């Protein structure tokens, strides 16, 4: 009897052990596959043109090529990984590019790895000379130069990114790009921090402006797009206005999203209540006003002193931080009671500090001689 009891006890213990082993095995089997493959020393990432790229786990030397790519690197606090920049980043005036204002001095010290600009393809020889272990390129570059070929010629992985149409805030694409790049650069926490902050700002702007029934009519003139533009150039939709649940008068006549040129007769017919001017082109508007002030003064916004300036945010792709700062200033002008607690300058500096670690608003003012402002005194109509 005692023998049977011992045998039963042993069998029971064995059964328990088997159950534990089987349960553990099942648990291991059903775990989702991770994008990282640490045993092989690389991360598998699917880029913006659906290529699966094997990126080394220990990325420490990178270059970022094409519109907006260096901006994403700086937003992710990954400038310590840079080993080269495009010549455009050293030759162009940084004013108007938030990331360049913040890091111009650093960029000047780095080797040049190509011409840069939206029309110049990558230069494999110059890229190879700085021995990067990851090359980040904009999708536009991938259309000019096959990224797999570039990877072979440089001898390092090439990942293709984008974050939407230039001059716009494609929030989903922005967050996707930040998270993907954050993963391969091991800046996941930083990417999540930025995505949360972007969501908070957008939610705040939406809540402040939802339910407003009476809205002023708006025109945003001299909007920068692939260079400097005159007063009659605008954009539809205009992202800061979209964030404020507000439309522009050019939205009515826009055939497709993008730059839109209108004639003065249209502006005279619509008579916008408030006009905003891109600071990057304010001098062009001022010169044109001197030539013929009568057409401007036929607009009630000029006659009644409701003309304001905003910071330019479309320069070598969308300056995300600057566009968000503009939204708060425009909101303050259009709906002062809804933004009574907002100081646009302080808010702009808060946004710049979160994205770039530095309060950049004064740098814009130093560069343009003015920042967020009502500029009625520049356009006097008798």
What would you note in describing this structure?
The chain folds into two domains: 37-197, Rossmann fold, CATH 3.40.50; 213-378, Rossmann fold (3-Layer(aba) Sandwich). It has helices at residues 2-30, 69-75, 87-91, 98-109, 124-128, 139-144, 147-154, 171-184, 188-209, 239-243, 264-270, 282-291, 293-297, 300-303, 320-334, 344-356, 361-368; strands at residues 36-37, 42-46, 52-56, 62-65, 134-138, 158-161, 218-221, 233-236, 258-261, 274-278, 307-310, 373-374. The protein has 17 helices and twelve strands. The protein is an alpha/beta fold and 382 residues long. Helix 2 (69-75) crosses helix 4, helix 9 (188-209) packs parallel to helix 15 and helix 15 (320-334) packs antiparallel against helix 16. Mean pLDDT is 90; it is low at 1-36. The termini are far apart. The strands form four sheets. The protein has a four-stranded mixed sheet with strand order 7-10-11-12, with helices on one face. It has a three-stranded antiparallel sheet with strand order 1-2-3, with no helix packed on it.
Question: What does the secondary structure layout of this molecule look like, with pairings?
Answer:
Layout: H1 2-30, E1 36-37, E2 42-46, E3 52-56, E4 62-65, H2 69-75, H3 87-91, H4 98-109, H5 124-128, E5 134-138, H6 139-144, H7 147-154, E6 158-161, H8 171-184, H9 188-209, E7 218-221, E8 233-236, H10 239-243, E9 258-261, H11 264-270, E10 274-278, H12 282-291, H13 293-297, H14 300-303, E11 307-310, H15 320-334, H16 344-356, H17 361-368, E12 373-374
Parallel strand pairs: 4-5, 5-6, 7-10, 10-11
Antiparallel strand pairs: 1-2, 2-3, 8-9, 11-12
Helix pairs in contact: 2-4, 8-9, 9-15, 15-16
């Amino acid at each position: 009897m005692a023998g049977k009891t011992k045998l039963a006890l042993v069998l029971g213990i064995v059964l328990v052990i088997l159950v534990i082993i089987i349960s553990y095995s099942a648990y291991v089997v059903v775990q989702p596959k991770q994008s990282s493959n640490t045993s092989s020393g690389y991360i598998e990432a699917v880029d913006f043109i659906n290529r699966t790229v094997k990126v080394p786990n220990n990325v420490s030397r990178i270059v970022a090529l094409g519109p907006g790519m260096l901006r994403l690197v700086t937003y992710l606090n990954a400038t310590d990984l840079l080993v080269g920049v495009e010549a455009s980043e050293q030759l162009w005036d940084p004013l108007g590019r938030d990331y360049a204002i913040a890091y111009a001095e650093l960029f000047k010290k780095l080797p040049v790895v190509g011409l840069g600009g939206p029309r110049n393809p990558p230069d494999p020889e110059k890229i190879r000379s700085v021995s990067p272990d990851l090359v980040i390129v904009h999708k536009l570059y991938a259309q000019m130069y096959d990224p797999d070929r570039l990877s072979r010629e440089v001898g390092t992985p090439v990942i293709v990114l984008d974050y939407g149409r230039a001059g716009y805030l494609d929030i989903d694409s922005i967050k996707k790009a930040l998270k993907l790049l954050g993963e391969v650069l091991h800046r996941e926490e930083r990417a999540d921090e930025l995505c949360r902050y972007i969501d908070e700002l957008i939610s705040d702007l939406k809540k402040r402006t939802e339910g407003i029934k009476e809205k002023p009519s708006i025109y945003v003139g001299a909007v920068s797009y692939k260079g400097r533009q005159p007063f009659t150039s605008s954009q539809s939709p205009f992202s800061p206005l979209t964030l404020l649940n507000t439309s522009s008068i050019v939205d009515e006549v826009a055939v497709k999203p993008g730059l839109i040129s209108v004639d003065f007769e249209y502006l005279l017919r619509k008579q916008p209540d408030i006009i905003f001017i891109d600071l990057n082109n304010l001098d062009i508007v001022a010169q044109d006003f001197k030539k013929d002030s009568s057409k401007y003064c036929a607009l009630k916004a000029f006659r009644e002193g409701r003309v304001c300036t905003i910071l330019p945010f479309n320069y070598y792709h969308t300056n995300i931080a600057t566009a968000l700062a503009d939204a708060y200033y425009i909101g303050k002008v259009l709906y002062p009671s809804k933004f009574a607690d907002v100081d646009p300058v302080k808010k702009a500096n808060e946004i710049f500090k979160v994205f770039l670690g530095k309060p950049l608003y004064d740098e814009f003012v130093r560069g343009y001689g003015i920042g967020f402002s009502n500029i009625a005194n520049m356009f006097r109509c008798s």
